[in-house]
Specification:
Blueprint: H1 3-29, H2 32-82, H3 89-167, H4 176-188, E1 194-198, E2 201-202, H5 211-219, E3 224-225, E4 232-235, H6 241-251, H7 259-262, H8 266-271
Parallel strand pairs: 1-4
Antiparallel strand pairs: 1-2, 3-4
Helix pairs in contact: 1-3, 1-4, 2-3
The structure holds zinc ion.
Residues 202, 204-205, 207, 226, 228-229, 231 line the site of zinc ion (ZN).
């Protein structure tokens, strides 16, 4: 295959890969709304459980208060009945005190009972409200879930087709190794994995490259990667660039160390 043809194919592959990566990202982001809605539902559920527990213990307290109140009433009534049986002033005074104490206990318990009854009712109202809220939120989650499920299925199908299209580029000069490298570059370089050199400047990272290296790219005997940004390079004629190129060639010391000293980018190593 001609180099120009490989570059053209890589350019096409770049487009398809960008589409594939965008779709992959979309698929990841898709359930995000659902997650937010589900989290809200979980929160309401938890609040309901806590409120329900508080409501139950208020009911228990109310039950116990009722028993205490009934006991107090009975104690007072018993004391009142005994009034008919007493004969001495001393007995009368003692009993009278007993009745007074029982009545005051009864009153205090009645007050507590009313407060507790009010509390239990309020709990009941809040629980009903929360139940309704929970039901609405659950409906929203279910609706969102089925919407997303359908959408995901469609997107996954599209993705599978794109993946097939992209791996279809493997073959001939684009071997699996180059394909994988290129995928990584396109992914890491925001969709730009193959860029031209204008003059001596890489159009991906805008760094001036050594003459010798640019000459190798111009010769286009094999695929060359930018030593700075790792993108695949091809030479492209551009206005004024020829002059710059020539000027550089004239200016540069003939004993230039070459590319080996030049290529030392950890970013480059990571990618390739
Ligand atoms: Zn570069």
């Amino acid at each position: 295959m001609e180099e120009a043809e490989i570059f053209a194919r890589l350019n096409q592959l770049q487009e398809d890969l960008s589409e594939q990566f965008a779709l992959e990202e979309e698929i990841v982001k898709l359930p995000r709304d659902l997650k937010v809605k589900q989290e809200l539902l979980d929160k309401i559920n938890l609040e309901y459980i806590e409120e329900h527990a508080r409501s139950e213990s208020a009911k228990d307290e109310l039950k116990s208060l009722r028993i205490q109140y009934d006991d107090a009433v009975r104690a007072r009534e018993n004391a009142e009945k005994q009034m008919e049986l007493i004969s001495t002033q001393r007995e009368f005074e003692a009993l009278e005190k007993e009745i007074k104490d029982a009545a005051s206990k009864e009153q205090s318990l009645l007050k507590q009972l009313h407060v507790k009854e009010k509390q239990v009712n309020e709990f009941g109202e809040r629980l009903t409200e929360k139940e309704q809220l929970m039901m609405l939120q659950k409906q929203e989650v279910d609706a969102e879930a089925s919407k997303i499920e359908a959408l995901l299925e469609e997107k996954q199908k599209q993705l599978k087709n794109l993946e097939k299209k992209c791996t279809g580029y493997i073959g001939g000069d684009i071997d699996e190794d180059l394909y994988n490298k290129f995928c990584n570059i396109v992914k890491n370089k925001k969709g730009k994995g193959i860029v031209p050199i204008h003059g001596l400047v890489c159009q991906g990272c805008h760094i001036v490259l050594p003459n010798q290296f640019v000459n190798e790219v111009r010769a286009a005997k094999e695929i060359e990667f930018c030593p700075y940004c790792s993108r695949i390079l091809f030479y492209e004629e551009s206005e004024g660039a020829e002059d710059t190129f020539r000027k550089h060639v004239e200016d540069v010391d003939i004993e230039e160390g070459g590319l080996s000293d030049f290529v030392d980018s950890s970013e480059f190593d990571d990618l390739l």
